[in-house]
Design a protein that fits this description.
Blueprint: E1 3-7, H1 15-29, E2 33-39, H2 43-48, E3 54-59, H3 61-69, H4 76-84, E4 87-90, H5 96-100, E5 106-110, E6 123-126, H6 129-138, E7 148-151, E8 172-179, H7 186-198, E9 203-210, H8 214-224, E10 229-231, H9 239-244, E11 247-250, H10 259-265, E12 271-274, H11 277-282, H12 290-296, E13 298-301, H13 306-317, H14 320-337, H15 340-356
Length: 363
């Protein structure tokens, strides 16, 4: 049994909040203690409250930085947590240099795949092979004790089975969900929807999300005259939306992993996604030709390619038997390699390695 201190100043919903919850569940399942230092108003605080094996230390985000910079000499509870921790999990890169001063193993969890402050970490965790490869190239010229790199994707609980695809005479419902920001590619999805509408494909798009590009997407849908797209806003949870869908689309221009991939595929939804970091690992792990990706649960297309996206969606939607088989393959893929137990095993190995390796000397 080890004690892990996770540190974040992130307050929003999204990857860090969800990872803290899934890490907590995985660590508790393997009898580790998890202390989480996070802002008082963080979304994750409500998610973690009451979870087995988790203890929260909350304060305003600026106070977190202050106490890390001052060695927590003014906060007895945090100081005791730091002294009792075996390993630090740092979820914001800018906090890694502060955490390093405590002479504990620092594991920097790169949720975005970016390569900031790697020099301050003993271990760097990435969600995909592509991000880890970029980090390996970037750390070649770092100090001799450069961080050890690890690939630990998200883990997902078992989901209830969903109904099979709709009957042949029904419209195929394609679901998409996420933040309305440029890198998520929703403009490309609307362009693909326009192409499919023009060719009278029997496909209806249900889009769930919100964000700064919301008004622009609404205006774009109106300008294109899209009768096959419905914006539903953000809904939490998305269980009913997943149950009503036949196919999931992830049109991202950049995607470090994409939590929604596992949530959709784990429920048996086939996936059409772009050749970005996460989908390449989940769907393209054995190769990226169509036969290989279909056997893993979906199809891959190039980012920012509306025509390619429309073609892949039409191809899957037009063959109900293949749609059903691909959905079954998607569910098997998540259960086999992205379960909570798989996540717990990966975290166990990271913790054991971190404890055995001497932490870098503070600057």
């Amino acid at each position: 049994m080890s004690t892990i201190l996770s540190i974040t100043t992130d307050r929003k919903k999204g990857g860090i909040a969800t990872a803290l919850a899934s890490y907590s569940a995985a660590l508790a399942g393997h009898h580790h203690r998890h202390i989480v230092l996070l802002p008082s108003n963080a979304v994750a605080a409500a998610m973690l409250s009451g979870m087995s094996g988790v203890r929260l230390i909350t304060m305003p985000a600026p106070a977190i930085r202050f106490h890390l910079m001052t060695g927590a000499i003014f906060h007895a509870e945090l100081r005791a947590a730091i002294e009792g921790a075996d390993v630090f999990f740092v979820h914001n890169a800018s906090l890694a240099p502060m955490a390093r001063r405590f002479r504990k193993p620092v594991c920097l969890i790169s949720h975005s795949g970016k390569l900031r402050h790697l020099e301050a970490a003993d271990h760097a965790v990435f969600l995909s092979r592509a991000a880890s490869s970029r980090a390996a190239e970037a750390t070649v010229n770092l100090r001799t004790d450069a961080p050890q790199l690890h690939i630990i994707p998200h883990g997902f609980p078992p989901y209830e089975s969903r109904p099979g695809p709709t009957k042949p005479d029904d419209t195929v419902r394609v679901m998409a969900a996420g933040r309305f920001v440029q890198k998520k590619g929703f403009e490309v999805l609307l362009e693909a929807a326009e192409l499919l509408q023009r060719h009278r494909a029997g496909i209806q798009f249900d889009i769930y999300g919100d964000g700064p590009l919301g008004p622009e997407l609404d205006a774009m849908a109106g300008r294109l005259g899209l009768g096959n797209v419905v914006f539903h806003g953000w809904q939490e949870p998305l269980d009913q939306a997943f149950a009503a869908a036949d196919l999931f689309c992830l049109p991202s221009i950049e995607e470090p992993f994409g939590l929604v991939i596992g949530e959709a595929m784990g429920r048996g939804l086939p996936m059409v996604a772009t050749r970005t970091d996460g989908p390449l690992d989940v769907i393209g792990h054995e190769g990226t030709i169509q036969e290989q990706t279909l056997s893993a649960g979906g199809l891959l297309v190039e980012p920012d390619d509306a025509a390619g996206l429309a073609q892949a969606l039409a191809e899957l939607a037009g063959n109900r038997d293949r749609l059903a088989r691909t959905g079954e393959a998607a569910r098997r893929r998540i259960v086999a390699d992205f379960s909570m137990d798989a996540l717990a095993g990966r975290l166990d190995r990271l913790i054991a390695t971190a404890i055995q390796r001497r932490p870098a000397t503070p600057w």
